[in-house]
Structure formats: structure tokens, C-alpha cells
Amino acid sequence: MLDPSVVDLSEAVSEDAAAVHDLYAGHVRAGTATFELDPPTVEEMARRIAGVRDAGLPFLLARNRADGRLLGYAYAGSFRGRPAYRHTVEDSIYLDPAAMGRGVGTVLLGAVIERCAARDVRQMVAVITTPGSEASVALHRKLGFETVGMLPAVGRKFGRWWGTLYMQRAIGAGASTDPGEG
Known about the structure:
Elements: E1 7-11, H1 17-30, H2 42-54, E2 59-64, E3 70-78, E4 88-95, H3 104-117, E5 123-130, H4 134-142, E6 146-157, E7 160-170
Parallel strand pairs: 4-5
Antiparallel strand pairs: 1-2, 2-3, 3-4, 5-7, 6-7
């Protein structure tokens, strides 16, 4: 398991776009955690980081304290564009393969959840590729997410069909109180 003293968490800034790009590009090219088929450019990653940050949402990096190497990143983005969804976010998390299974995901996603709880976010949704993402399902379950649905065969990558599993958890008071209509 991860020794928390070896990891630094920080908010991503535009200067982090190249490192985020490099980590994500590996997932795009070889994995199914994302349905993107071609890695976005460094400039596009900088735009994505800025978009999350401009929305007042967390985009967190986990770096190895000893050498500064990016171990992973996680963020919360808008779940849907319609105004009624404004209190719901979707999380995304990507780890360096060497950091998987060491607790980095728990630290990152836990911190994203905490920061969302400090805002008017009331629900968080995870959209997880299935089959093949059992570790992600276990991480989300560990942090209080429950399975709420599944869409079979909705994405095609690497010559085969993939489904998505939807998981959800309440943030803060969830739906039990009115977050205000500001």
C-alpha cells in the first residue's frame, strides 16, 4: 500500500498539460478506460485542465515526492451540459501503470470527492468500461459508489464492443437537502 508521505497532491495548471498528456496517451493507445481513439494534443489537454478549473472543480495530480514523476491524476467534470445537472459531476481517474494497486487511486479520488463536497456538488457519477475495469469498480465501491446501471456494447475500440457501467455516490448531503438555486 501507499505511504502517503511519498506522494504530493496538487491542482493541475496549464504547465502540467504535457505530463498529463503523456500519461493519458498511453491509456488511449493501449487501454479501454477511455473511448478516445487518438490521444488529444498537449494543447487540448491544457484546454481540458483549464475548463475543469474554470468551472471551479478539482483537477488533481499525484506526484512522487522524491522525483516529481506523475503517478496519476483525477478530476471532476460536468456530468451533462443541461442546467438541471449542475449539482452532479462525473469523475475521471488515470494512473501510471507502475502506481496501480498501491493506493494512489484511493488518495486521488478521495481528495476529488472531498473538494467536491466543499462546493455545491451533490452527486458524483463514474462511467467505467466493462469488461476489464474491475480495479476501477473496486476503487469506486471502496469510496462509496454503488452500481446504478449498465449500457452494453456502446463503444467500439480495438476491434471489439465495450460496455459502460454506471456507478454513483452522494456527495455531502446528497439529495437530502436543497443546495440552493444560485
